[in-house]
Amino acid sequence: MELSEIRKKIDEIDAKLLPLFVERMQCAEQVAQTKKERGLPIFNAQREQEILDKVALSTPDFDCEAKMLYTVMMALSRARQHKLLHSGASVREEIERALQASPSPSVPKVACPGVFGSFSHEAAKSLLPNGEVQFYTGFPDIFQAIETGGCRFGVVPVENSSAGSVAEVYDLLLHYRFHIVGAAVLQIRHCLAAPQGASLASVRKVYSHPQALAQCSQLLHSQGWDGVQHSNTAAAAKMVAQAGDPSQAAICSTLAAKEYGLQILRENIQNKGHNRTRFVVIEKEMRIPEDAQKISLCFSLPHTTGSLYSVLARFAMNGLNLTKIESRPTARDTAGGTFEYDFYLDFTGRVADPRTLDLICELSEELPHFSFLGNYREDVFSG
């Protein structure tokens, strides 16, 4: 059979499929009304799984393809029902309040990890130039300071272009569910700093944060130096300065090296020239600026076949670009002792767009442990 003849046959089949699809969606609208009258949830995981199992048995040669087709159709059906019933009332109200939230205090207290001169400190100054920075030893201390009201904001790193995600911060974000109200990508330039009189030949141990050690691993390996983990890059610089031992050096910013009186033995020692770290501003209260362009969510998934695909497909259907997906095991007890995961998601978008807002509200109704973390502006600083 000629290709043109096959395509003609496909067109004829499509002409039959489309009216059937419309009819199916119209049935979904009737289902929505019935569920509303009876107080039933839109998402019925058991019902959908039964349909997928039946489809797979009915089409053994195309079972995977058929299940994917029906997964998408059922997702579209749910989306239509959610839209008709104006789902996610609590999330809609929360977002509306955030759009009208009052501006932050003129001189807010900002929790920052490390000490003066850390990269988080630079990010805090860029993101909240009028903030009163207070330093804390570790990331848990930052979240606890916000939880107790000691600080209004916190600034923490979430990922680096070469060393990857900061897992501890994502764990804390998923645990506390604080709101993200701002973000920035900062160019990170590391230097090797040591006490006055030291040299490359005298160095034996190099101290820094694990992320910084990973970002400068090539130099460490080439020199045969031992990398020793420390709580923060600037804190490592301060410790090395106080020790005054020429066999010890720190990987830190040039600002930290100068602040603690260290000499810079080598600059720009990171593995990659374009080394960038993304920082976020967290706060208990949600606020959404008019120029917000990035959205963050977190949720867990129902234990059904294709549940993650079904969620991600909804973003593609709405033309939304995912920029980050992170999964972390939870501490929640599960049947049979199996692992359960929370997912963290970033995507470009604005809740002022009705379709985007509808999607967020739909997911809030369907997904366990769902939290809308914020719609915020993300800046890029050269550092």
Quickly list its features.
alpha/beta, five-stranded mixed beta sheet, 383 residues, seven-stranded mixed beta sheet
Write a structural description:
A hairpin with a 3-residue loop joins strand 3 (153-160) and strand 4. The chain has 383 residues and is α/β, with parallel strands linked by helices. Strands 1, 2, 3, 4, 5, 11 and 16 form a 7-stranded mixed beta sheet that branches. It has a 5-stranded mixed beta sheet with strand order 8-7-9-6-10, sandwiched between helices. The chain has a 4-stranded antiparallel beta sheet with strand order 13-14-12-15, covered by helices on one side. Helix 3 crosses helix 12 (307-317). It is built from 13 helices and 16 strands. The model has no long low-confidence stretch (mean pLDDT 92). The radius of gyration is 26 Å and the shape is elongated.
Gyration radius from CA atoms, angstroms: 26 Å
Average of per-residue pLDDT values: 92
- Tell me, what's the shape? elongated
Unreliable sequence segments: none
In percent terms, what proportion of residues is strand?
Answer: 15-25%
Helix content: 40-55%
Could you give the count of β-strands?
A: 16
Distance between the termini: 63 Å
Count of DSSP helices?
A: 13
Topology:
Elements: H1 3-38, H2 45-58, H3 63-85, H4 89-99, E1 109-113, H5 119-127, E2 132-136, H6 139-148, E3 153-160, E4 164-165, H7 167-176, E5 179-187, E6 191-194, E7 205-208, H8 210-215, H9 217-223, E8 226-229, H10 233-243, E9 248-252, H11 254-259, E10 263-267, E11 276-283, E12 294-300, H12 307-317, E13 322-329, E14 341-348, H13 354-366, E15 371-376, E16 378-381
Helix pairs in contact: 1-3, 2-3, 3-12, 3-13, 6-7
